[in-house]
Each structure stands twice: as C-alpha cells, then as structure tokens.
Amino acid sequence: MKKGTKKLSKTRKQAELPKQYDPQKIEDGIYRQWEQSGFFNPDHYSGKKIKPFSLMMPPPNATGVLHLGHAMETSLHDVIVRYHRMKGEKTLWVPGVDHAAIATQNKVEKLISQEGKTRHDLGREKFLERVNQYVEESKTTIEHQLRKLGASCDWSREAYTMSPVLTKCVQKVFVNMYNDGLIVRGNRLVNWCPRCESTLADDEVEYAETEGILYYIDYPIKNSDLPPPHPTLGGGGKITVATTRPETMLGDTAVAVNPKDERYKHLIGKTVTLPLANREIPIIADRHVDPSFGTGAVKVTPAHDFNDDQIAKRHNLAYINILNPDGTLNDHGGKYKNWAVADARKLIIEELQQRGLLKKTEKHIHNIGHCYRCDAVVEPYLSLQWFMSVDKPAVVWKGKKKTLKEVAIDVVKSEDIEILPSRFKKTYFHWINNLQDWCISRQIWFGHRVPVWYCETKIRNPIRQLADEIKKSCPPLASIEQPKKCKRCGSTTFTQDPDTLDTWFSSALWTFSTLLDTKIKKDESLAEWLKRSPDFKTFHPTSVMAPGYEILFFWVARMILMTTYNTKQIPFKTVYLHGMVRDKEGRKMSKSLGNGIDPVEMIQTYGTDALRLSLIIGSTPGNDIKMYEEKIEGFRNFINKFWNISRFILTTVDTPQLIEKKPKAQTLSDEWILAELDILIHDVTKHMDNFEFSPAGEKLREFTWDKFADWYVEIVKIEQGKNEILLYILQTLLRLWHPFIPFITEKVWGELNTTPSLTSPLPSPCKGEGDDDDVSPSIKRGQKGVSSSLILIAPYPKSPTIKSSPALKHHATIRAIITAIRNARAEFKIEPSLVVETGLTPSLQRRISPNILLIEKLARVTFINQTKTNTQGHTIHEHGISLTLHIPRDDKKINKAKKELEHYITSLEQKLSNQDFLAKAPKAVIQTEQSKLHQAQKKLNKLA
Ligand SMILES: [Zn+2]
Ligand SMILES: [Zn+2]
Question: From the CA of 366, how far away is ligand 1's center (Å)?
C-alpha cells in the first residue's frame, strides 16, 4: 500500500449513498456529532504552545428569535472560526445573549398588558421574575437557532450579560470608575422617553423629518409705553417669538435675540411678562440666535431644549422643569397640570388665541426624535442621572494619563486596532471627537442596578433630590454590598439607587467579562480577578470582532472605551464590519413591510449550507447584501451538484479513502487540474486571511463546478484510472469548503474517512498548565494530516508556492477547441449523437496530440487525415489553430434555422429604422440592438 493512503474495509456500493442530498436527514445528527466530540471547546485540542485565536459572538438580544441578519453574522463568524480551527489554532468562539434591558422590558410589558396589567401592578420583584422567565425561553430559542446554523461555538462557555459573573464584573467596573471620578452624578438635560419613562443615550434617539407648525407668539414687554419694536414687526410693547413648542413656554426663563440684530438692540436688557405664567423674564443677547429664523427672537426653555440649555449655561439662567416623567405637565404647568404634552399644546394655543397673543402660524419641517425601542416622541428633559465622563484624564495609557476619548482615538490611529473596511475609520473618529458624556442610568427595572447607596439621614427624597439637597446630604457610596455605616453621620440605614445601567454598559465589557474565571471571590479587585483568569490570559485581546457597521458606535466604540480603561488592553485586534441584509429591492427587512425572510424556514426548505452560502457569497465588508429566496435556491442547486460530484467519486473508486499526498499526474489534464488546485488553495487561503470570504467562496465554486465537475470529471470518464487524483481533489475541496458549508463536507468526509478513530473515544482533554504539549490531542490529530475522524478538526490544506505550469496554457487550448467545436455543432443544429469528421493536418496533430482522443470524445468528432481534396467544410480558428469540420448538411433543419434567423433579422431591422425608437431609446439599448443584428447576420452567412 502506498504511503499516505489508508485502505477501507468495505467497498462502497452505489445504493449506500442516496441520489439526492437531503440536509433535513443529516444536519442535526452531524451537529450532535460535533458537539459530542468536544472540539468546539479549545481546551480539548490545545497544547500551550499553540497560537490562540478568539472571538466573541455579538450577543443577540434576549428578545426572541433570530432574523436573517443574525444568520449572516453567525455564518460569517463560523467561517472565520472553522478556518482558524482547521489551521491548528487554539480557537475559541464564545456564544452569549444580551439582556437588552429596554428592549426586553418592553416585550414583557407588552405581554403583561395583554393580561390587562402594567409593571407597576406586579411590582419590581414580580415583574423581574416574569422578565427572567421570558429570557430563559428566548435563550433556548436562540441556542436552538444557532445550532441549526451550524455555529461551532463553545457552549460550555456560553455567557449572558446578567449572569452572576458578568453582573459582578459590571459592579466592579462601576465602582472602579466611580472612585476614579469617571462616573459622576449630575442634574443635566437628557433624552427622555415618556413611554419607557427612562433616559436614552444620544444614539438611541432616532430622528425623523416631520411637518409641524411654527407658532408666532407675542410676549408683552413690561414697560408697555415703548414704541413698536420695529416698523416691520408692528404692534407696540411686545416682542414676538417663533416656536414649534408653545407648551414649553411655561418653562421659559428668557427671550433671546442676536446681539447684532438691529431690530432688537434697544430691547436687550428689558423684561417681558411671560404670558400664561405671569412671570417676568429678561431679554438677552446671544450670538447663537439665528436672526433669520422666525422673527429673530426666540424663547429660551433651558430644561426642555438642548440649544437653550447651552444658552442658559452661558447666561446663568434658571431651569424650570415643567414635565413629569410620564410626559404630562407638572406643577409648573399651572392649570395645564397633568395634561399630556400634545393636549396641553392645543389648550395653550386656544388660550393664546383668546387673549390675542397668537400672531400667526406657519407650516414648518423639523426633525423629531423618537425612542428607538418604542417610537414615542423623545423629550429633552432635565433630570438627575449618572454620567460617564469622557473628557476627564483618568486612564493611564502607554504611560500617560489620558481621557477615555483620547485613548479611543489613539488605539485606532496607532493601528493597534484595525477597522475593516478602513473607510469606517473616518466615521469612527468623527463620532469619538463629538462624543459627549455618556448618560448611563436608566429608569427601567430590568438591568444591572446602579451599585450606589444613599444614607437616609436628613434627606426628604434620597433618590430624586434637588441640587441644594445633594450638597447638604451625606455623600452617596459606590459599593457592591450595602455599606455598613455612613462615614459622615454614622447612620446604618441605606437605600440603593433604583436606577439600572444602560444595556450597553455591560455589553461594552463583553470581550473580557466573558473570559473571567467563573469562581467569584469576595473582596477581590477586578485586576486580581483578571490576573487569575486563564481564559483572559490566553484569549485576550481577542483576535477579531465582526459586528454589523450599524453598531460601530453603540457597541464597538464603547467596548474600546471600557476595555482599555479596565484591562489596560485593547478589546480586539481587528474589527470586521459586515453589512445589513436587505430585500431584493434593497429595502430594510421589517415586520411592517412583510419582506422578512425567516432563516429557520429557509433551512427547512433548502438546508443550512445553501443558506450560509447565499449569505456569504456576494457579501463584502461594510456593504449591504440583497437576499431573496431564489438566491438561496440557486445555492441549494450548487450543494446538490457538490453532492453529485462527491457521490460520483465515492461510487466510482473501488476504495474510498483519504489521499493526503499529491498524486503524480499521468496526462496533460491531470497536470492541469492539479496545477489549478494549487492555485485555488493559494488564492483561497490568501482571501481567507484577508477576510475576503466572498471571493474565496466564488473561487471555490468556480473551480468545483466549472473546472472540476464540468471538465475534469468528464475527462476522467474517458481517460480512466484516476481514482487517486479524484480522491485527492475531493478531500482537498472538502477541507477548503468546510468553513463555508460544514454539513455536507462533514457528511462526505465521513464517507471518505473510515479510519478506526471515527468510533474510538475522544482524545482526552488537555491536562492543563504543566502539561507538555507533545502528546496533546491537537498534535495527535493535526499535523499527521487527514487521519482525524472529523473534518471539523482536519488541517486546512497547506498553501503551496505557485510555479508557472505550461500545462495551464496547453490545456486551455484543448478546452478552447472542444468548446469551439461544441458551439459550431449547436449552431448547425447537429444531432448530439452524430460524430462529425474533422480534418487533421500533421501540424495540428503535433499541437493537440496526445489529446486527440480526448477531443474526439468530448466534442464528438473523429479526426481524419486532411488531404487537399477534403478541405471543404466549416473552419474554426482557436488559439492559433485552424481546423475544419466536415459538417453533413441537414437541409431541412438548416432551412428552418435560416428562416427563423431571417425573421429575427427583419424584426430587428424594423426596430432600428423606427425613428420614434431611435429618438427615445437610450444609446446603450440601441447599441445592443445593433450588435444583436450584426450577430444574427453573421450566423445567417455561416448557414448559407
Ligand atoms: Zn421608549
Ligand atoms: Zn449619613
């Protein structure tokens, strides 16, 4: 027996392999086999000298089922992970779920509203029980779906942002950042969702252009015997302000004009009486007021407008909050107290009209912010919240004290972190440069509770206290456990802050919180915890992070901010941003459009491999991908083709087996296909290393279908005796294809690889630290090559050095001749079974021998000596070769074809002489029609 081959005990009969590939029957079984093998867990094939490779699954939200976007992301990750695992790297892929605070709470609130209840009816504790129950169910669904997609992640390390370990990590991070002065409490203007009754981060507000109304309202000037403000304005002793939000006038604390505005110069410093509230407020000058907007005079409502907040800070104005958390007016609303904003607006406009203070209204287009979770209109709202300071130099980075912002810029600028595609770097820098302090507290119940405690002594309302009360009260304490005693007054009674943290706070820790040792030790610092966590030491910084570009800021940037501060490491070396999945027309898939495609349904119909291919081939970094069912169907056809090729080989060769050594070529075709295979391995490896998965898949598909199946397998049927080459190519293709289409490749591999290890027990997990790696399972399986039982851990083909091979050119000539003859046969409508005589000159014989037989069989011709008397016929010129086909004329058929062509030509000529068509049709269309006509005339001439 030859070296590198292993004899199979039994001969495969055709009957053993079904004609049709049926993914439904095999996929679940194969996934179970992988899981039971233990090889998703890198501990099971590691020696300590092996290069680690790690990535974290962007955790799907715990809000239920996965959509096609998740399917794409998961497929992409799995391609990366399987590739690196096969390269022999110690590969870790951590799966997990995000608790998705607001999103999940909203889902459950909707569920209980069907029972006629609100969360307040249940109370915090009971409500959270319901949420946890819901999350458990969702997690099971998500896990099932990920398995269906073939995700080869390490389930033993599955993480959840609300697990005890991750919660502990969140608390420690909060306390550290609080003690470093990076987390501060302040009464600031925030984005407030009155429906969720919570703050939102700036990027959680979605803006939509809306048609509104601009109201012109007269504010009487206190000293009413003043002349009219300006002849163009009319009236006397009034100043007219323009606003889209008349209801917030109850919170006005000034009227502002531009200092350069001649119309109002004489009014600066005067006082107006605020209508409806009867308060006196000043007229101030601020250079940020746009004189061309409305009347050039604006009302200033610092507690309900971000621009006014800035004006108020410059002029030291008072803040009057007129809203309750639920978006109704509070005590400052006077008689409009308890009315919702929209209703209050109507009533206030009516009253202004009655008093003759509403001067006019006009239509106005403006941007309105909506809550990204519930779509309610977001209110700028003054409230006491927790903020993460991004401009405070408190992070030691590369030996210098820097701000979070500076570090986030440095790591990308210095290329410690690579962002792919690199055009997103610009967007990243822009975003970081404009970053404001991050409001991290939320007033919802589901989430990590803020680990801050308030001493209860002397405070009327410890939670929503007023600014001056904060000064008087004992300082709050950040602590994971309830503090024993207040350091200032000695009290032992404390209340915990009722707020929870922004959901992105915990997901920002994802790359390292998931690698912490699961044993929690009391009173241990985060630094100590990280130091004793083996996974953190081995796998951090992680190798790659591959989320969608739409969460570059939500998540990627925040991971960079939080990880650099907390671990002194970057979270990942490469960020690969993928695009979004869109429908055939390029629209976003959504429930309301009804254009979504359910990945599970597609898997049931076409199989996972087909779905994965359709999501990866054609997808390029940072660009969206269009998806539709026919596309998946097309890839299902490819999978079937792949099965047919494999089946042909498995049933043709006497002994299916793994041939690991490149066999010797016997013919030009062998030389050619083996050279092509080398090029393929080389190119695909290069693409895989550069995250170019789509071109890698396309090259594989082209080789498999066009070169291998359509040419070489057909050649094998003629030349015979090529079992070794067929098996060698098949096993190489299986390994190259495996990251993309794991199920079918594992199935075929199993048919090829029938070594005893298939049934033998697993290699034992590596013993750990002191274990010398010479006997590690990885070595056992890997470097010996193809003898491992599962393709999951079979080594990836080694990329060869490419030498130029003359066989590539010679074989191209042979194929070109065959194709040319086939085309001519089709043109002349020659019966497929008919063998056509073709002239063979001595020089031609020299060029194409020893492949004459091959051409004869594949093109269905027979070569005859070309003499001077038999040069009549159809001559083909291809690759510098001329050959003459002696085509028997079937006049009936030819005449029919001629007639058809003539008819076609007439219709084209008519079209091209139609002036109307020529005037209206685009140039390109006319050109196409002209070239059609030209081709048809050429064809007709040949038939003549
Ligand atoms: Zn909301
Ligand atoms: Zn106290």
Answer: 20
